[in-house]
Amino acid sequence: MKDPKSQRGLLILVLGSLTTIGPLSIDMYLPAFGGIARELDTEISRVSLSLSSFFVGLAIGQLIYGPLLERFGRKKPMYIGLIIYALSSLACGLSSSVEELIVFRFFQALGACGGLVASRAIVRDLFDTKDMAKVFSLLMMVIAVSPIIAPTLGGFIATAFGWRYVFGILAGMSLLILTGGYLLLAGYDRINPGYSLRPRAIATNYLSILTDRHFIVYAMTGAFSSAGLYAYISGSPHLYLELFGLNEKQYGIVFAVIAAGLVLATQLNNRVLRNRSSERIVQLALIGQCVIAVLLLVDVSSGFANLYFTTGLIFAYLFCLGFIFPNASALSLDTMRHTAGSASALMGSLQMAVGAVASAIVGILQNETGVPMAGVMAVCGGVALTLLSVGSRRMPVASSAG
């Protein structure tokens, strides 16, 4: 690591805070959908479009920030993004129609992208491959904890003060994160004034990254593997609320237990990295994920699915993801020494795009069973394993992978 050891913990805390903006923005206002629909005189299905517009903003915004991070350094674009996020969050809270909320959520996502892309680029700047995997494990833990805390916190705020205060608190959090970043990143930056912002140059740079075998294999492996998480999030309400007959409180408990699998795996990953390379961990975890996905598909297809057994399989599936995602992310950025900002943006955009498609397919194929969710999870794991197996055959092993 290239920064003083005394600031390592605080730096990771700030990076984790930047990373959690996206998950908090997604999960915190979910319990307030009913209240939003009533106050804005619309249907919950219309309110859910504000979630879709946020996903679109995340996919597009990351591609925009990549070149800006290269040209102007990590800090300025990140600060501007956080300010855009804060203002958009306030605008969401002041929305007088669902259409306004949908639009402002898009801009809120654009602002969130500044921190998301910058945090990954900074990790690449300051850590070698094995340490990158460890830091990404910590960041993944933050992402995994968010679904446990955010809906409960958001529900409490919406019940006590109203849904508009949820967005006000998100705005305040972004300003606190901006302050922490400003203080801890003083003196650090990686500016390239010669980097061209012409559309053709940007497209050429992204194309060069896409043609890097090391990047594309691990970025797409991580994207498809993590898309199984989006499939689960999309299909789990129907599975647990409709098929298993749980109430909202019970569903929240199950959701938290499953999310704990990600937290546990990301922390175990740091220990496993002491004796295993990131490449080997990804390979073994993907094999495990595919086996578990097949068992889950057979389970929900049988007509005799059991709440505890099914939950255990989903827990195990996401447990494997806790090993795959941080290592695949670190490996995909390993060769991106001079284009870490653009590579980080492209990686995030690919992950969001694949995840959004997986989520949409579950909804389209919904047939009052758990098969669409489990089927998409299985396909995602299978595609990820195939990409890794085929793509890595002629790919040199990263020198720093350990």
TrEMBL record:
Protein family (similarity comment): Belongs to the major facilitator superfamily. Bcr/CmlA family.
Full protein name: DHA1 family bicyclomycin/chloramphenicol resistance-like MFS transporter
Keywords, sorted A to Z: Cell membrane, Membrane, Transmembrane, Transmembrane helix, Transport
Sample GO molecular function, one term: xenobiotic transmembrane transporter activity
Keyword ATP-binding: no
Segments traversing the membrane: 47-66, 78-96, 102-123, 135-159, 165-188, 215-233, 253-269, 281-298, 304-325, 345-365, 371-390
Domain Major facilitator superfamily (MFS) profile: 11-393
A Pfam family that the UniProt record links to this protein: MFS_1
Highest taxon listed in the record's lineage: Bacteria
Membrane topology classification: Multi-pass membrane protein
Localization annotation: Cell membrane
One cellular component (GO) term of this entry: plasma membrane
InterPro entries cross-referenced by the UniProt entry: Efflux_drug-R_Bcr/CmlA, MFS, MFS_dom, MFS_trans_sf
GO terms (BP aspect): xenobiotic detoxification by transmembrane export across the plasma membrane
